[in-house]
Amino acid sequence: MRNRVFPERGRLWPELEQVLIAERTKDTPWRKGLGALYWPDPGGNVRLVAKEAANLMFESFMLGARYGEPSARLVENEVSTMVQDILDAPDGAVTTLTAGGTESNFHAVKTARDWARKNRPGARDPEILLAYTAHPSFEKAAHICAIRTVRVPSRADFRADVEAMANAVNGNTIMIVGSAPSYPHGVVDDIADIAAIAREHGLWCHVDSCVGGFLIPFLRKAGHKVRNFDFSIPGVMSISADLHKFGLVLPHGISSFTLREEANLAFQGFEFAGWPYGRYAVRTFAGSRSAHVVAAAWATMRHLGLNGYLERAKSIVRLARLLRDGIERIEGLRLLAPSEAGVLVFTGDALDIAALVAGLEARGYPSSWCKEPPAVHLLLYPVEDETIVEEYLAAVADADAELKAGKSRGRARSGYA
């Protein structure tokens, strides 16, 4: 018989609270989340500020272009404007706040498809051109939008092969995608060259900067040489950037999709009036949306400001250097690629990466790894306490020594699933 969860009688909050507290003790501690797929405390009072703002607007929501309290509209508009400032968007740009990077990239594909129906009518079987390293969300969006994807190989440095992209353009190509950075290897594609292909052939150029959108601009302001990706590059038509990654916004569930030109918003949205209630018009995939996460983003960005984001960008660089130096002190281990924008990937000659990851997980460190080529994958975050890094490196060295001694704790699976 199936276990019953829905209670006949309600329970008081103190009882429910104890259940959650007991379950939370099983979760990964913050200081061991170094390589996990979630974001720990971003430091300072950011978490508290975000929580208080979210609580103030806990019950607020937005629906379409008309419905929403003035407070919800204020935080949405101001977050959108700050996003545009960070991405160097021109006058006339428009930003939509979404539930995550997958939705942002969906909007890019849907917008490009509908834009192409007007601007590339000869594309009878529309195709998206992207590198092998591009995120699977484009495959998901293309599947929903009933268009094809064409993936070209990446170069030896894991960046998109721009020459291969140029050669793959044909009469059905409507869109070309670059990553800043790509998630698997953490390197930034040559966006200026990709955008130049788009301009030459009249294609939609989208930049997936879900990982780096709120880190790279501050790294560049701090003097670090990272490839540019933003709207200052002619031909870039849209950019996706996740606020719940290096925008440092908690709770999860907020990204951004920015169009260079407001006129193209007509290709992004959806409208319908053929029912009794009248016009239904939305920009986002969802209809009604909670405003509490947007309020948290507004408070976080206002609280940190330019200086706060600069300091945390510098912290990411410092963390990457500490990890690089510590990893390379372990015999046989090395970085797979330069850590350019918040991702660090390391590997080892003749090392069973899946077994190493299993060893790390056995030591309390949730880890992920890249399949091609096999390498441990870390999504970094600002660290104030460097002993956290030392503890992680000690766990890596211990797991590595265990493998070299001929012991193994099994194999971990790569990917999200």
Describe this structure as you would to a colleague.
The relative contact order is 0.15. Helices cover 39% and strands 16% of the residues. The model has no long low-confidence stretch (mean pLDDT 92). It has helices spanning 13-24, 46-56, 70-86, 101-119, 137-145, 162-168, 191-201, 216-221, 265-268, 292-328, 353-362, 387-404; strands spanning 61-63, 67-68, 94-98, 127-131, 148-152, 173-179, 204-208, 238-242, 255-259, 270-272, 280-282, 288-290, 333-335, 343-348, 368-370, 375-379.
Chain-wise SSE layout:
Layout: H1 13-24, H2 46-56, E1 61-63, E2 67-68, H3 70-86, E3 94-98, H4 101-119, E4 127-131, H5 137-145, E5 148-152, H6 162-168, E6 173-179, H7 191-201, E7 204-208, H8 216-221, E8 238-242, E9 255-259, H9 265-268, E10 270-272, E11 280-282, E12 288-290, H10 292-328, E13 333-335, E14 343-348, H11 353-362, E15 368-370, E16 375-379, H12 387-404
Parallel strand pairs: 4-5, 4-6, 6-7, 7-8
Antiparallel strand pairs: 1-2, 1-12, 3-9, 8-9, 10-11, 13-14, 14-16, 15-16
Helix pairs in contact: 2-10, 3-10, 4-5, 10-12, 11-12
